Amino acid sequence: MATLPIGTRISRARLTWVVALIALSVLLNYVDRGAIGVAAPLMKDELRLTATGFGVAVSAFFWVYAPACLFVGWLCDRYCVYRVFAFGVAIWSISTALTGFVGGLASLVLLRLFLGLGESIAFPGSSKIFAAEVPVERRGIANASVSAALAFGPAVGVLLGGVILGGWGWRAVFWVFGLGTLLWLVPWQIASAPLRAQSIVAPPGERVSITGLLRIPTLWRMGFVHFLSNYGFYFVLAWLPLYLVNTRGYSIAEMTALTTLSFTTQGVVALAGGWFSDRMVAGGANEGELRRSLMIAGQLSTAAAIAGIAVAESSLMLGIWLALAGFGTGLIATNLFAVAQIFAGPRAAGSWVGVQNALGNVSGIVGPIITGLIVDYLGGYTYAFATAAALAALGALLWWVLIPEIRTLDI
Questions:
Q1: Helix axis angle, 139-168 to 170-182, nearest 10°
Q2: Could you give the CA distance from residue 359 to residue 357 in angstroms, rounded to a whole number?
């Protein structure tokens, strides 16, 4: 296998094509990941799941997803990332489709584990490609495309899933989503064909080990703030449809419209934030400090929005708070991995993001179970919303006081 030295650029046209397909894969990633939340109002009753049982099913995805990110990030720095990416998508799309056949909690948990294994490729793989291939003055919009897809994925999932749910039931949601994702492999194989014979890896003597990365305090700090960022986002992604239908009394159509508003706002803000940050960096702004400020603004907005959703008394106010939640998570998603790419540099981006994403997604393991226990044993969602809002606010504080100067480290 030939090696493409770090810093060698592919053509701009092919780079645009590859970035667009990566963004589409992330959109499908969150369509498939969020399908369980869309299906929950009908699936939970048919499978006789308690809130805690549903929380366990949501959490199961992260039991494999978080640790798998470590291994997948290592793979991306050592083998052809384009091949690894395709393999991961194949695993998660098949797992999604098979979820439409589950008969109880055990089979649901098993397929969520395989879904987590496949989807672990998304962020280590995209970060490896972006850090090695994308010029710094276009890094914002490349990450923004992924961040927008991360938002539009749940929006598309809720909108399309709500239609499927109302017309054909919850099982069809998984069948349609899984088979749709499988089709993504066709254009990816075409776009990456000239690139699969070479790998954007560092020479063997320059590779960074996972154990070496784990000795860097900044990586652990980034993992912790990543945890705090993810907690609020996953809380909204997994529990909002169920909360709106079962607790607030909204119809499935109304739930679909309100949830879609939040995620659509997130996608628009992600794209606008990526464009804005690229313009600022091209104009001479310090990229690291700019992205720190945007992360703090995103965390504060998310904290305020989650608290506001819990106390909103009208559909109008609920819509406003959901839009603010989308604003905050849009800023977070655009800048979180961009900061990781700065710290790691192209040589270690795959492994760094793999470790950081693994640490950050521990929130996906503990968060749904904590929420389920709160709902079952404390009598409602009040304390669950308060917990998510408090952790988002803590994230804003720690981005200010805990994260050091944002620059490429001498790893």
A1: 140
A2: 5
Tell me the CA distances in angstroms from 168 to 31, 164, 174, one per residue in order: 18, 5, 11
Q: Tell me which amino acid residue 175 is.
A: W
- DSSP-derived 3-state class of residue 109: helix
Q: In degrees rounded to 5, what are phi and psi of residue 34?
A: -85, 0
H-helix or E-strand containing 199?
A: strand 198-199
194: part of which helix (H) or strand (E)? none
Q: Crossing angle, helix 217-242 and helix 362-377, to 10 degrees?
A: 40
> Which is it for the CA torsion 75, 78, 83, 85, positive or negative?
positive
CA distance 170 to 179: 15
Instruction: Output the pTM of the full model.
Output: 0.74
Higher pLDDT, 159 or 173: 173
DSSP code of residue 359: H
| Spatial CB neighbours of 110, under 8 Å, sequence gap ≥ 6 | none
Q: How much of the chain is in helix, strand and coil states, percent to nearest 5? A: 80, 0, 15
Task: Write out pLDDT tens, residues 339-356.
Answer: 998 998 877 777 888 889
Q: Which of 26, 130, 115 lies closest to 68, judged by CA?
A: 115
Going by the DSSP 8-state scheme, the letter that residue 9 receives in this structure is P
Which is more confidently placed, 123 or 186?
186
- For residues 218 and 409, the answer to whether their CB atoms sit within 8 Å is yes
- 244 backbone dihedrals φ, ψ, rounded to 5°: -65, -40
Reported as type and span, the H/E element at residue 3 is strand 2-3
Residue count (the chain): 411
Q: What is the phi/psi pair of residue 25, to 5°?
A: -65, -40
Show the beta-strand stretches assigned E in 240-284: none
Residue 193 to residues 5, 18, 72, 261, Cα–Cα distance (Å):
18, 11, 21, 38
